[in-house]
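Quick one, C-alpha cells below:
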C-alpha cells in the first residue's frame, strides 16, 4: 500500500525540438487473452464531484467510461490485454469558472491523476485532493510512482528550457537558435543517460521499464541502444501495445540511417492525387515531416528557411515534399491552414493516423516529432537528416551537395 502526491496533469511530452507524436496505435493486434480489472475509488473531503472518467486501451481501440459519484464512491470494470498507464479525470458539477486554482472549490472543472492499471482488483482513495492518492491491489504502482519522479524531473527540465527561450516558435535569431539547439541536446543527453538509463536497467523486470523506454525512445536516435534496452525486458511485457510501438520505432530508425535508400511511398495531395517518392528520382529531395504550421510552432519556425532554400536551389534540381500527419476527420482544417502560408509553394501530401501506425509513412521513417527532415540524393539515398537540415544549417548542408 502506498501514498503519493501525483502531478495534477498528465505527463508533459513536449520537447522544443518539435511537437511530439507519442500516442499512435501500433497497427497490430495482441494475441494475449483479455483479462478483467476492477477499480474501486473513494473521495474523502472532496465535494461536488459529478463523475470520474477513465480511458484505457485494448489493442487499437480506446475505451472511455464514466462513473458517477455516489456517496463519495465510484467503480469501474473492464478488460485489458496487458498492464498500462491511464489517466483518471475528475469532473465537477459546476463548470462555470475554470480559472480557480483551488481543487476543492466547486468551479474547478477537471482534474487529472495518472495510474498504472493491471488485471485484478484495485482500490484508490483520494483524500482532501484528487492527486493525494492511496493505491492498493496494484502490484506495479510502487514502480510506477518511482518512474513518475523521473518523468516529472524531465518535464520540469523542458519547462525550464522553455522559460529561457520564450520566443521559440515566433522567430529565434541564429545565435539564439544555435544556443537553443546546444542546450536542448545537452538536456536530452542528460535525460537519457542520467535519468532513464539507470531506471530502465534497475526496473527491467517490471512493465514500468517498458513505459519508460517508450517515452525515452522518442528522443533516442540510436536504434541499437533502444534495442539493447528492450532486450532487458521480459517477453511477456514486450507483447503489448507499448512493446509494438518501440519495435516500430527501432525499425523506423534503422530504415533511415545515412546511406540507406529511402523507403518508397505514395500519398495523396490536397486534390487526392497520389504523389509517389519515385517521382523525385534524379533530384535532391528534402522530405519534411511536419504538421500544419498554426498547430506546430517549430514547423512554422522552419518555413522561412525552407522557402529560401527552395527559391535558391529549385532550378538546380532541388525539391521539397512536405508530409503532414492528420486524421481524415480534420483533413480540411489542415488544408485550410496550409493555404494560409503563401510561402509553401512546394507539394504537401497527407499521411493518415486512421490507417494505423504500422501503415503510416511517419512510422516507417521513425518520425516521433515534427518537424523531422531527411535529404535524399538523386538516387533516393539518405545523405543528411534532422538538425543538419534545420534553420540556417539547411543552406550550409545543401551547398555541400548542390553546386
Amino acid at each position: 500500500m502506498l501514498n503519493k502526491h501525483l502531478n495534477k496533469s498528465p505527463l508533459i511530452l513536449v520537447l522544443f525540438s518539435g511537437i511530439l507524436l507519442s500516442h499512435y496505435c501500433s497497427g497490430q493486434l495482441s494475441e494475449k487473452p483479455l483479462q478483467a480489472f476492477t477499480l474501486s475509488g473513494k473521495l474523502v473531503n472532496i465535494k461536488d464531484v459529478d463523475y470520474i472518467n477513465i480511458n484505457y486501451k485494448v489493442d487499437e481501440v480506446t475505451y472511455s467510461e464514466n462513473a458517477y459519484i455516489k456517496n463519495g464512491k465510484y467503480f469501474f470494470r473492464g478488460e485489458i490485454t496487458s498492464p498500462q498507464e491511464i489517466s483518471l479525470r475528475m469532473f465537477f458539477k459546476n463548470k462555470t469558472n475554470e480559472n480557480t486554482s483551488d481543487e476543492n472549490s466547486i468551479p474547478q472543472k477537471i482534474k487529472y491523476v495518472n495510474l498504472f492499471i493491471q488485471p485484478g482488483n484495485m482500490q484508490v482513495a483520494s483524500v482532501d485532493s484528487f492527486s493525494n492518492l492511496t493505491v492498493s491491489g496494484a502490484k506495479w504502482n510502487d514502480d510506477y510512482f518511482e518512474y513518475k519522479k523521473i518523468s516529472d524531473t524531465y518535464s520540469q527540465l523542458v519547462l525550464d528550457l522553455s522559460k529561457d527561450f520564450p520566443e521559440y516558435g515566433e522567430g529565434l535569431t541564429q545565435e539564439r537558435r544555435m544556443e537553443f539547439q546546444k542546450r536542448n541536446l545537452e538536456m536530452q543527453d542528460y535525460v537519457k543517460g542520467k535519468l532513464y538509463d539507470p531506471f530502465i536497467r534497475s526496473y527491467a523486470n517490471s512493465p514500468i521499464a517498458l513505459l519508460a523506454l517508450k517515452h525515452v525512445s522518442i528522443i533516442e536516435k540510436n536504434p541499437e541502444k533502444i534495442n539493447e534496452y528492450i532486450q532487458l525486458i521480459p517477453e511477456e511485457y514486450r507483447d503489448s501495445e507499448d512493446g509494438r510501438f518501440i519495435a516500430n520505432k527501432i525499425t523506423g530508425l534503422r530504415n533511415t540511417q545515412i546511406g540507406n535508400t529511402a523507403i518508397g511511398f505514395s500519398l495523396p495531395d490536397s486534390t487526392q492525387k497520389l504523389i509517389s517518392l519515385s517521382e523525385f528520382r534524379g533530384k535532391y529531395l528534402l522530405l519534411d515531416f511536419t504538421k500544419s504550421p498554426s498547430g506546430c510552432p517549430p514547423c512554422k519556425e522552419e518555413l522561412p528557411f525552407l522557402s529560401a532554400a527552395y527559391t535558391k536551389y529549385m532550378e538546380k534540381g532541388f525539391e521539397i515534399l512536405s508530409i503532414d500527419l492528420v486524421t481524415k476527420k480534420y483533413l480540411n482544417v489542415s488544408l485550410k491552414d496550409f493555404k494560409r502560408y503563401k510561402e509553401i509553394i512546394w507539394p504537401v501530401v497527407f499521411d493518415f493516423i486512421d490507417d494505423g501506425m504500422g501503415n503510416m509513412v511517419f512510422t516507417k521513417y521513425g518520425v516521433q516529432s515534427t518537424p523531422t527532415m531527411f535529404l535524399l540524393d538523386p538516387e533516393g539515398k539518405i545523405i543528411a537528416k534532422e538538425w543538419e537540415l534545420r534553420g540556417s544549417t539547411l543552406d550550409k548542408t545543401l551547398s555541400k551537395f548542390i553546386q
